[in-house]
Write a structure and sequence with these properties.
There is one protein chain. 3% of the residues lie in helices and 64% in strands. The chain has 276 residues and is mainly beta. The protein has a 19-stranded antiparallel β-sheet, with helices on one face. Strand 18 (249-258) and strand 19 (267-274) form a beta hairpin. It is globular. 17% of the residues are buried.
Amino acid sequence: MSKGPGLFTDISKKARDLLTKDYNADQKLSISTFSASGVALTSTAVNKGGLSTGDVAALYKYKNVLFNIKVDTGSNITTALTFTEILPSTQAVASFQVPDYNSGKLEVQYLHDHATFTTAVALNQSPSIDVTATIGTPSIVFGAEAGYDTTSGNFTKYTAGISVNKPDSCASIILGDKGDTMRASYIHHLDQLKKSAAVGEITRRFSTNENTFTVGASYAIDHLTVVKAKLNNHGKLGALLQHEVIPKSILTISSEVDTKELEKNPRFGLAIALKP
């Protein structure tokens, strides 16, 4: 396991990724290349409801600075700069989007062996402030986050979480939406490479007395092929298959269907990625 408790966003991340990552209900094509100079280029095209969009992203690291720039078909340019080790155990992330000049954001992260702390400030005339903190070890983590709107003087969010981690499993509980939602999850890895796993998650919304229970699994058929599936108590079923066609080229085929409305056609998604 990694050193230190990790960021607050890492709590329940493994379970969340297994239930959401790479699932795609839209038609999507993504191709990534990695040049000898260290520049990673990714071109993505998405067709959703007959509307086609696309973007080109570039990722480059120079010394202790990571440059991430994306240009989409809507003439939006998104830039993120990550400065690592500006101070011991500290890194900063600056992001902004053109032409939305109010989208600027600066985040500072401090990572210690037994605690982490992050502060993010929106760079506009009415800045919002987000703060997160965790304490603990790689085995057990306690964390919290809060958002504050300086214009209204109100808290926009406050969340707390706990995670218990073992080499082959992870259990976590998060109380979010200002105390209105509780989400508990558990993931258990079935092999040493952690390609096969089972996960269960239950979400309780107190204001509506609504419960959502989701189970999912991933299974490595061989070292080139992985299948994943998920199902919740509302009848939403998702499945995907990933296969490394050639080195650094992964084909992903995914579909989603509402089992309670089988008369409707299922939605299919297709993604192809060349990953460096």
